[in-house]
Amino acid sequence: MITAIVFIEADVSRISEVAAELADLDGVSEVYSVTGDLDLVAMVRVREIDDVASVVADRVNKVEGVLATQTQIAYRAYSQHDLEDAFSIGL
Questions:
Q1: How confident is the model at residue 77 (pLDDT cuts 50, 70, 90)?
Q2: Most buried by CB count within 10 Å: which residue of 4, 62, 75, 87?
Q3: Count of CB atoms within 10 A of residue 45's CB?
Q4: What is the Cα–Cα distance from 44 to 52, expressed in whole angstroms?
Q5: Mean pLDDT of 53-75
Q6: How far apart are CA 84 and CA 32, in angstroms?
Q7: Closest Cα to residue 38, out of 15, 22, 4?
Q8: pTM of the model as a whole
Q9: pLDDT tens for residues 14-59?
Q10: Residues ≥6 apart with Cβ < 8 Å to 86
């Protein structure tokens, strides 16, 4: 499974509509509205690396109101459980 984090700048008058449309796309598992320089963050989860390009370039970027995207590929995941094991001293 490939996970990509997509930072999205959206038309401020359509943020809710853009988020809803993005959440309905195949390959997009979650969409978050966020504070700061970005408007939305979408989590893309696909089987193959080439599928990231299909989802982002062919679907996300074509949603009306998406102005710009930046995509980060996750190469390792850490859950809370993993972090606890990493810092455990065995007590």
A1: confident
A2: 4
A3: 16
A4: 7
A5: 97
A6: 26
A7: 15
A8: 0.84
A9: 999 999 999 999 999 999 999 999 999 999 999 999 999 999 999 9
A10: 78
Amino acid letter, 23: A
Sign of CA dihedral 10, 16, 17, 18: positive
Residue 89 backbone dihedrals phi, psi, to 5 degrees:
-105, 15
What is the mean predicted confidence (pLDDT) over 66-86?
A: 81
> Residues 74, 78, 83, CA angle at the centre, nearest 5°?
155
Tokens of 48: 């193959």
Model pLDDT, residue 7: 98
Q: Which residue has the tokens 């990231």?
A: 52
Residue identified by tokens 């193959």 is 48
Residue type present at position 10? A
How far is residue 46 from each of residues 25, 43, 66, measured CA to CA in Å? 12, 10, 21
Phi, psi of 12 (to 5 degrees): -60, -25
Rg of the chain over Cα atoms, rounded to whole angstroms, equals 15
